[in-house]
Amino acid sequence: MPPITVASVSANFTRDLDQNFALIEQTLQDARAQGVQFVAFPEAAIGGYLSSLGNHGDTVATTKRSLPPAIRLDGPEIRRIQELAGDTLVAIGFCELDDDGVTRYNAAACLDGGRVYGSYRKVHQPLGEHMSYAAGDSYAAFDTPLARVGLQICYDKAFPEAARMLALDGAEVIVSLSAWPAARTATAEDLQDDRWTYRHNTFDVARALDNQVFWMASNQSGTFGSLRYVGNAKVVDPGGNVLANTLLDAGLAVAEIDVEGTFRAMRGGMFHLRDRRPDLYGPVAESESASVNGWRELARA
Fold this sequence. Notes:
CATH superfamily: Carbon-nitrogen hydrolase
Number of helices: 7
Order of helices and strands: EHEEHEEEEEHEHEEEEEEHHH
CATH architecture: 4-Layer Sandwich
Number of domains: 1
Keywords: Hydrolase
Radius of gyration: 19 Å
InterPro entries: Aliph_Amidase/BUP (IPR050345), C-N_Hydrolase (IPR003010), C-N_Hydrolase_sf (IPR036526)
CATH topology: Nitrilase/N-carbamoyl-D-aminoacid amidohydrolase
Structural class: alpha/beta
GO molecular function: hydrolase activity
Protein name: Carbon-nitrogen hydrolase family protein
Largest sheet: 13 strands, mixed
Number of strands: 15
Pfam families: CN_hydrolase (PF00795)
């Protein structure tokens, strides 16, 4: 397969769906002008994210007005994104409404004008997010015309197992869609120096290198409610090299990637997935390990 041009998006999305669609359309126009074939939009690009996090944040119990609009994977909003996408492959985040008409998920889909290739419901939930969304329960990669792709959302990147599951399922490109904010306390004056910006960037590089995959990290930028987003949308290669980065700005991180050539060169030597020792990793997958129980005992003390 020949090299492809990809772009990760840093942009600000609100509750205003008209604003969202207009921004998505303009971003896709800008991307196509640069020859981009695969565009990764942020978490909650359709309808915006929660306005705050923590026990005082948005919850179904306390308010409905501030929650993102819940949409169905087969609904008109997703069809609208497909119309805008055309021949461009797009990954995008939204609040998914389950078939029961009640349950909400923080979700993402990968699609073009003709097909939805795969979707994902966020598994790992930070800081009270569970009060607004149900948690997903699986990771699976899927084939697209450009590469085999895996999706994850924001806090998932802090868990090596999440990316590893996708890599083991053959993902060549993992898209990490985020609404990643700056620290809530002792926030750095320059957000590029903020400790949560550091974590966002470090996880992106580590997960790409851990699994020797291409990593497309999108993120919200600007502010929404009490959250200040750190941008830093990027493309990382399987060696952990950042090929493009928006830093704090809104815009596109554009890079050409050669999946087949890079994998052949890099995985021909040290191949992390091949050299694993899963026979020794038992406690990693145990739901209640001794170390976790030890920390819980300390917390109770």
